[in-house]
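Everyone, describe these structure tokens:
***
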Amino acid sequence: MLNRKIIFFVLLLLILVAFFLKQATNKSDSPEEVVKNFTNQLFKVAPPDLKKEAIDFVYSKISKNSQKKIKSLGDIATFLRSNFLPEKGFEIIKVKKDDKTAIITVKWAGKSNVVFKKFFMILEGGQWKIDSITNSKI
């Protein structure tokens, strides 16, 4: 009888540990981290690289609603509202966030120009997703 109680409590403890580990690993990246990772992966999506895993990553960070509009790599460029990547780097300059939405303002430095972008984000299925991107005057 005592052995059955011990086994029951050990199993219960293992289930609780598994539950808490799952919760810890499901934690969503912050909106800022999503934008950083998204922008870094864009370099691997652009020619000549065109890495499939980077394309899949970029696509996965876009909201379901916006994914419906993307059928090709050209559509990703349209979604970005840009025909260049920030070759000289990028910097997050402003973060506005509440429980379900965020606006991340980013400075993109190209070879010959600087553009400010606003990433409009939503919380979707517990993950921050990019819903739209616009050019901004800051």
Notes: Residues 120 and 132 are 5 Å apart (CA to CA). The beta strands are 89-97, 101-109, 114-124, 127-136. The chain has a mean pLDDT of 84.
